[in-house]
Amino acid sequence: MLKLNGIHTFYGPIEALRGINIEVKQGEIVSLIGNNGAGKSTTLMTISGILKPQAGDIVFEGEGIGGMPPHRIVEMGISQVPEGRRIFPRLTIKENLEMGAYTKFKVQLDKIFELFPVLKERQKQLGGTLSGGEQQMLAIGRALMSNPKLLLLDEPSLGLAPIIVSKIFRTIKDINREGVTVLLVEQNARAALKLSNKGYVLETGKIVLEGKGEYLLINEQLKKAYLGE
Amino acid sequence: MFLQQLINGLTLGSVYALIALGYSMVYGILELINFAHGEIYMLGAYLGIIFLAFFTAVGLTAHNLPLALMLTFVLSIIFCSSYGFTIEKIAYKPLRNAPRLSPLISAIGVSIFLQNYVMLTQGATDKVFPAFFGVAGFQFMSVRMTYLQLFIILSSAVLTIALRLFVRKTRMGKAMRAVAQDKTMASLVGINIDTIISLTFIIGSGLAAVAGLMVAMYYGLVNYSIGYVAGIKAFTAAVLGGIGSIRGAMFGGLLLGLVESLGGSYISGEYKDAYAFVILIIILLVKPGGLFGKADLEKV
After folding, report:
1. How many structural domains comprise chain A?
2. How far B101 CA lies from chain A's nearest CA (Å)?
3. Residue B276 is assigned to a structural domain of this protein
4. Which of A71, A168, B85, B124 is the 20 to 30 Å CA partner of A137?
5. Contacts of residue A102 in chain B, CB cutoff 8 Å?
6. How confident is the model at residue A227 (pLDDT cuts 50, 70, 90)?
């Protein structure tokens, strides 16, 4: 479904991605793990078209999307929940969701409200007034409003209480079961890998390890570096 | 006397408010003070003269004055909006990722260019705007209001309300607010940022065209340099109300008009233009965010 071939991306003068290859197949959950500054967010921003790759190509459903403007990529069916959620603080919950459906002319809120009932109760409130967990729900809901085929999630568990984190991960699983392919970036490697069909480990702009989720979970090298054992 | 000055001030303030809206919208989206905005207002006034002269020549003004005036407004708005659109594409868009000072200097350059362009093509002397309304009006006790004043106040109120509704209720208007709050996120939900920025310039310039035409009708004289002072005053109005806010631009404009008009008659008319700047300084010292401004500069 999505293939990155030899992607090089510069972030200012720094070469943040140094030739990475990633493949995401239809219906999978694929996670991308690694430390701060490894290039995880850069990868997602490159896929979304916010950053332009210097070299390499990105193919989504048989079409090259490298260098396409971001709004075209959303129209193609890729939507992102960025790091830090980036809720529009002075738009209401409802307006935030409506913006998620900007590329669609029909706005369907029911499905999202079913998934996150708390958003329905607070739909008239400003986005900036929500708690971290609620903002994460809103960010995911907003990304789903465009009916994406592929959902990119950047650190959805960051800064949230453990109980909310497990709820978010369950939701990701549910969304995937409904047919949305997921590419998940996480520092919480264990939780991410448990959920994933496949994982990639990114270190300073390069993929150093890849494999099935359960395989990576028992990999000695990975255990030492990322799973804290 | 006081009520009379109130009406004069409201008239003037309505015009400032319309220009201030353009400043405020562009600043809200690009954080750019568009110094060329006053020149768009000046162009609106000149285009009004040109189109009216044309309609007089073909006999439309004598035959059907309201239609001629309406067409003049519509054409001036279209022309000014095209100017605004083109200026953004040529002078600001290439500098979008440059340091903030660069587009500001570019804006000053555009402003100087447009002033000289009009001076060279239209002459440096004042042009007379044909007085169609004259001083017809109505009297209420000791206060006199001309139909033109009423027209200016009403149309600027209608346009401001329409703009507010557009920004609050429509898909494009909400997208505008989204772009103003977080451009990257707006792209990520599929908003074409360039389209929204162009739209902002088109709307702002259209409002400036209306303001220019109305002032030309009100004072009856037009000069290539009127955009400069009006621009700075409208900018003051925008800052006074809280730049980036529509309500702020409107109240800032009205308040400035009132201060100028009341100060001009109770203190001294000679300092008419100075009041705006005194207010600007006071606001910047006391409440830099403006009357309706955000409590603090966000950017978490």
Report:
1. 1
2. 20
3. no
4. A71
5. 171, 175, 189-191
6. low
Q: Is residue B25 part of a domain?
A: yes
B166 by Cβ neighbours in 10 Å (0-12 / 13-18 / 19+) ranks as: middle
Q: What is the token pair recorded at B10?
A: 């409201």
Query: Given a cut of 70, is residue B249 above it in pLDDT?
Result: yes
CB A74 to CB B192 under 8 A? no
**Distance in Å, alpha carbon of A205 to nearest chain B alpha carbon:** 22
- In this complex, the residue of B181, B188, B190 whose CB is nearest that of residue A90 is B181
List the domain range (segments joined by +) for residue A25: 2-227
Token digits of residue B217: 């009708």
Give me B18's structure tokens: 């319309």
* CATH number of domain containing A79: 3.40.50.300
- Domain tally for chain B? 1
- Mutate which of B185, B192, B198, B300 to disrupt the A interface (most A C-beta within 10 Å)? B185
User: How much is the pLDDT for B297?
Assistant: 43
Q: Is A86 on the interface with B (CB under 8 A)?
A: yes
The domain in which residue B80 lies consists of 2-127+134-224
Interface of B with A in 193-252 (CB under 8 A): 193
Q: Is A178 exposed, middle or buried (0-12, 13-18, 19+ CB in 10 A)?
A: exposed
Reply yes or no on whether the pLDDT at B134 is more than 80. no
Give which of A34, A27, A32 is closest to A4, Cα–Cα: A32
What phi, psi does A124 have (nearest 5°)?
A: -90, -10
**Considering the entire predicted model, what is its pTM?**
0.92
CA nearest to B186, candidates B195, B175, B197: B175
| Residues in B touching A89 (Cβ below 8 Å) | 181, 298, 300
B181: contact with A, CB 8 A cutoff: yes
Contacts of A129 in chain B (CB under 8 A): none
Of B175, B184, B300, the CB nearest to A99: B175
B229 inside domain: no
- Whether B205 is covered by a domain: the verdict is yes
A74 in contact with chain B, both atoms CB, cutoff 8 A? yes
Q: Give backbone dihedrals phi and psi of B49, rounded to 5 degrees, phi first.
A: -60, -45
Q: Which residues pair with A8 in a beta bridge?
A: A18, A55
pLDDT over 70, % of chain A: 97
